Amino acid sequence: MNTGTVLIIGAGGVGSVAAHKCAQNPEVFKKIHLASRSLEKPNAIKADIKNRWGVDIETHPVDADKVPEVVSLIQEVKPDVVINVALPYQDLTIMDACLETGVHYIDTANYEPPDVAHFEYSWQWAYQDRFKEKGIMAVLGAGFDPGVSNMYCAYILKKFYDKIRFIDILDANAGNHGHAFATNFNPEINIREVTQIVRHWDKGKWVETPAILDQKSAHFTFDYPVAGPKESYLLYHEELESLVKNIPGLERIRFWMTFSENYLNHLRVMQNIGITRIDEVEFEGKKIVPIKFLKALLPNPASLATNYTGKTVIGCIITGVKDGKESTKYIYNVCDHAECFREVGSQAISYTAGVPPVVAAMMVMKGVWKGAGVYNMEQLDPEPFLEAVSKNGLPFEVVDYETLPEKI
Ligand code: NDP
């Protein structure tokens, strides 16, 4: 029996947007609980939500690294769904707690172990049988990318094609936050992601290429709608893994993200001096992890929102075949940093990542998505999801396009 109760864990940039969006949909979310390691951030969000939407939410402290703490919080608030927008490190403990209590689970980033900068779905896919047996859903990667990007692929396949041959996912942040260097979401997770060896899928196998900081990294100038030409770098991103598995016959999939020369130069220097290291080092008799220290120095991503201008443009160029005829579609969203700030006090990266998990929660709570087990987004019906995502601030366009060249 659904009670319209949601528990959001994580009160950073993304958690704040998720809580605001739940408050904007009181017919679905009758009771909103927001939890994080301490009460400071949840309480600030609570006050802002009351001020903007007149909605009362409840806040809780929880250490989501500890399964029993999450279990007792779930038992106390009795949610229909838990939205995990803490860090990828907490995915498995929160999934364990959902299993123990029989509550649906949604997240926006796949698990990665704190001591290895590596993410993959295997750890979470291993929960498949247990979620099935318990009769509950785990919806993985329900942010924008992964998340909406997966659904764009599923939607284009459903609407236009018998089969998809090529996908290029393109993520541009054509915004300006006015800082010399800052990351748009959690700095530790962001830097771990962008300093990885790059992989893409081509002709039935994974191909490795140099990381974006390497002079030999693959990049090209793409002319984004609204934002214009931007240098876009080949990057490994987690939705590639599930899309290769779930879109049969996919020949090639690549992920591209824009980076400014300024961002790359800062990151090169930081990497060269060792401050992006994720292992412990001894400092004045204490053990510290340099990247965690760096995180403490960098601007909090949520704080960038105040003066952020410009737009994000994220979408997929998809080539498919229908009745033997090949064509290409480009499906994308444009989101404006300043408009997000006016609406919910956040920048567009947090906004694009925070709206979709709330819509995923709506789909589960309303019974639009039904099932038991662990799902990646593209395994669920994309149409009602994208319709609701559009209504909740992230509309999309579909235009005819051309396949991007094989060699870039
Ligand atoms: P932040 O660092 O701003 O926020 C993380 C929040 O989680 C903070 O409130 C933090 O608390 C809390 N937290 C951390 N550890 C714990 C813990 N052990 N127990 C309870 N709470 C904890 O991150 P973002 O909001 O920028 O990102 C949140 C998630 O969204 C990340 O997993 C990120 O990868 C994902 N993301 C997904 C995107 C997508 O499109 N799919 C895009 C952008 C982000 P404290 O402040 O005390 O540290």
Taken from the alpha-carbon principal axes, the silhouette is globular
CATH architecture of one domain: 2-Layer Sandwich
Average pLDDT, rounded to a whole number, is 97
Could you tell me the radius of gyration in angstroms?
20 Å
The small-molecule ligands in this entry are: NADPH dihydro-nicotinamide-adenine-dinucleotide phosphate
Give the CATH H-level superfamily of one domain.
Dihydrodipicolinate Reductase, domain 2
| Helix share bin | 25-40%
State the end-to-end distance.
52 Å
Class derived from helix and strand content: alpha/beta
Q: Approximately how much beta-strand content do the residues carry?
A: 25-35%
Instruction: Give the biggest sheet.
Output: 9 strands, mixed
H/I helix tally: 14
**Topology-level CATH name of one domain:** Dihydrodipicolinate Reductase, domain 2
Low-confidence blocks of residues: none
- Overall strand count: 18
CATH class of one domain: Alpha Beta
